[in-house]
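Q: What structure does this chain adopt?
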Amino acid sequence: MTRAGVRVLSALGLWLVTTAAASAQDALTAPNIYRKVLENARVRVLEANFKPGAKSGTHSHPEHLLYMMSDGTLVFKQAGKTPYEMTFTAGEALFLPAQTGALENDGDKTVRALVVEFKQPTAVTARVTRGGKRVSRSGRKRRR
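A:
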């Protein structure tokens, strides 16, 4: 393949990634469903309340932990894929990869959950201690 062809394919790939990211909105654009509980440099915690018939628009979450506060079923819809139902039990916790899609509660009871979104690590990391002594990132004790 020629350099020009590689550049065109690279530009097309970048455009597709940018377009997909731009079309997915933040979960907080559905304030009737999501409410921010906490946010810091490492995580964002959202409370989700899907009343019967509630629908979220297409939105994205980075890697996240989902903790179910009630039983219920939600329909998950991703572009170009067949929608599917997910059934949850109160007290259940799931670790989910980054994803984009829309959710709908087609059941007859409210589905409640906490969503803990993990942000990318920053260059500045907290000091890690074990038993009150500072340790390196590898877990070994540091020499003083």
